[in-house]
């Protein structure tokens, strides 16, 4: 309100229309990690099947 009692409208900042920067980048580390896990599990399952055949 101003000195005369009138309601004064405050305009919002224009930055409200932009998305926040979350720091997310296009890194392939998760893809590489998933590939390593998949390869490790296939190797482990192959060794388990070989051991089962030998017994």
From TrEMBL:
The keyword Membrane applies. The chain crosses the membrane at residues 30-49. Residues 19-55 form the Gram-positive cocci surface proteins LPxTG domain. Keywords: Cell wall, Membrane, Peptidoglycan-anchor, Secreted, Signal, Transmembrane, Transmembrane helix. Pfam families: Gram_pos_anchor (PF00746). This is Gram-positive cocci surface proteins LPxTG domain-containing protein. InterPro entries: LPXTG_anchor. It comes from Ligilactobacillus hayakitensis DSM 18933 = JCM 14209. Coiled coil: none annotated.
């Amino acid at each position: 309100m101003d000195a005369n009692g009138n309601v004064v409208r405050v305009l919002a900042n224009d930055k409200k229309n932009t998305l926040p920067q979350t720091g997310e980048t296009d890194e392939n580390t998760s893809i590489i990690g998933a590939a390593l896990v998949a390869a490790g599990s296939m190797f482990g399952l192959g060794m388990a099947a070989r051991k089962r055949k030998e017994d």
